[in-house]
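Figure 2 data, in text form.
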Amino acid sequence: MPYLPLPKSVGPFVTVVTLVLVVWLGYASVRSPEDLWAPGHLSRYHTDITKCSTCHTPFLGPTTSKCVTCHTAEVFAARSQPAIGLFHETAVQEGRPCLECHTEHRGAL
């Protein structure tokens, strides 16, 4: 099926529009990445977190190593029942990701 050639003005127009979008996304990503890329509000337990990098590793997302920075075994021992602390300690030792059970960015549930 033969296609008609595009007008010569289409190429520069598409290039300019693409360049404007890339510059805008780059500027907005640097200026306020949380506002541009956040998938939703944090749960009520994490509302004090202000930077994405507190929980997220670039290009990997949230990782268990970031979670256990704040949620240590000592915190579980002090704030939860022994069975819950033991469950979480075992899960971390087995290398199971926290996101297997816990989700974020669903608002104050």
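Caption note: DSSP finds five helices and two strands in the chain.
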